[in-house]
Amino acid sequence: MKKNKIDIVKAWLNKADRDLIVANREINLDEPLTDIICFHAQQAVEKMMKAYLIFLEVEFHKTHDIEDLVVQAAKKDLEIIKLKDKGAELTPYAVESRYPEFSEPSLSDTKIVLEIAKEFKDYINNYIKNKTIKEK
User: How many domains are there within the chain?
Assistant: First the structure.
């Protein structure tokens, strides 16, 4: 059975929320694993952006590049371009953070990454909510 667009968007956002739950649990531990937190924050934003692109009905290719996803979304929502540079900050955590050559992010950098993820979440959720209300 084929799901409708809103169900698919909700499924992507639910997956993103689960990544943020993991990141937020870990940040509150005595010795948080900052690389893991940053990885999950990046994954959350990537999934949020893919949900957003589906909502906007913008086709996209498989990528971990948040900046690229923001540029794709800007085709239908110019306002999101303000998050482009912040998205670029997250992209390295998609792959590089999983390898030992990557230096461990500081706790302060990790908190910034979580703030960026929250900014994306707030923006995307507000946009979808406002557009959905207007369509009703």
Answer: 1
Listed in sequence order, the residues at least 6 apart from 131 whose beta carbon sits closer than 8 Å to its beta carbon are 55
Q: Contact, 97 vs 88, CB < 8 A?
A: no
Q: Which domain holds residue 44?
A: 5-135
For the stretch 76-95, pLDDT in tens is 999 999 999 999 999 999 88
Residue type present at position 6: I
Show Cβ contacts of residue 133 under 8 Å, excluding neighbours closer than 6 positions. none
Q: Is 80 left (phi over 0), alpha (psi -120 to 50) or beta?
A: alpha
φ, ψ of residue 117 in degrees (nearest 5): -60, -40
- The whole-angstrom separation of Cα 132 and Cα 10 is 13
CATH of residue 10's domain is 1.20.120.330
Q: Where residue 1 falls among pLDDT bands split at 50, 70, 90?
A: very low
Cα angle, residue 88 at apex, residues 86 and 91 outer, rounded to 5°: 120
One-letter identity of residue 123: Y
